[in-house]
Amino acid sequence: MRDHSYMQRNTRAMVAMLFLGLAIFSGLYSTQAILPTFVKELGFTPTEAALTVSAATGALALCIVPLSILSERFGRGRLLLISAALATVLSFLVPIVGSNVIAIIAIRALQGAVLAGAPAVAMAWLSEELDENVLPRAMGLYIAGNTLGGLTGRLVPTGLLEFTGWRGALIGAAVVSAFFAVLFMVLLPKQRNFQPKQLHFKSEIRAMVNHWRTLEIGLLFVFAFLGMGAFVSMYNFITFRLIDRFGLPISLAGLVFLMYLAGTWSSARVGDAINKFGHGKTFIVSGLLFAIGVVLTLGPLPVLLVGMFIFTAGFFAAHSTASGWVGQVAATNRAEASSMYLFCYYAGSSAIGALSGLVFEFTSWAGFIVYISCFTVAVILIGLWLFKATAKKKETVAA
């Protein structure tokens, strides 16, 4: 009976986290698919339109660390529930603030700050509540939820643009996010292993900074910054390429976000690959796919679509591998390690995503791809170093 109850709780926790990913990330990226609409109908520049994404991810990055510290005192589950509830409310404000670019960017930044509570502690919640043999699969399902959330957050407004304006499209996306948030709130089990701590901001921040002294963890942080920056940059502007180069209407161009299903598939299965081949080999192969996919977007439309499929699968496989790897390498202060990883992840999305808008405006698509490829090559080099370092440690232990 205890085993059945234990398995049931694990399943419920994993499904709840799947819905959390769906809720949070459908809200976080709800404007990305309609960036060309902002440019065409509201007169935004591509850089201003991209800031509706970067403002949200940037605020999220800034708030991850303080919210993670607060979770040490008040509980992971409580923060997750509050974050999901407030994010649901704010998602309805974005389409009603008007067409002023500053107002939209400001509301999106506030939305990102509220959303930060979920990614700040979701991985720590899983690490504390689930056994190590269950954790890789649970982490993969959570990130699969992230990819599905990112997919619905893009496809829903794109599809609704066929029948309504940009405001109606964003309201529809908000309704979907709210539905997933409610399911998460109902399913999340109570935390059993959480032990509250006294709040010591200096010591918590010191613990996060100290993780950089472990080179393996530091390189995983660097991957999070560069990899997510490249990934968001590609998806920010791939619809512009499909519309301008291949003449697709925005409703068809938006279907490119179906490639997120490749990330859903790869992140949900990467746990098995890690168990079989190890973190290092899995990460290197994922990085190679990430890089190959970028180059293929230079080709004709069918090749471009194949490239986006490979690019997306490779990135999310690498991200799933790296996020779990951080928790494994960090013997202590795992919540702080996860928070720093996610800070780098969303800081890269914001900083590199914003910079990429300028690159896109002032260079050709080929030049843009060369720019993105610099980041993917860096990811491969990080993977090779980590693989060698891990192999050397195993040899030392064996000796």
TrEMBL record:
* Ranges of residues in domain Major facilitator superfamily (MFS) profile: 11-390
Membrane topology (UniProt): Multi-pass membrane protein
Coiled-coil segments? none
What residue intervals traverse the membrane? 49-67, 79-97, 103-126, 138-156, 168-188, 217-238, 250-268, 280-298, 304-327, 339-359, 365-387
Q: Kindly indicate where the leader peptide sits in this chain.
A: none
Q: Where in the cell is it found?
A: Cell membrane
* Major localization listed first in the record, in broad terms: membrane
Which UniProt keyword terms apply here?
A: Cell membrane, Membrane, Transmembrane, Transmembrane helix, Transport
Show the Pfam families listed in the entry: MFS_1
Q: Which CDD domains match?
A: MFS_NepI_like
Q: Which PANTHER family match?
A: BLL2771 PROTEIN, INNER MEMBRANE TRANSPORT PROTEIN YNFM
Family recorded in the similarity comment? Belongs to the major facilitator superfamily.
Query: Which protein, by its recorded name, is this?
Result: Transporter, major facilitator family protein
Q: Which organism is it from?
A: Corynebacterium ammoniagenes DSM 20306
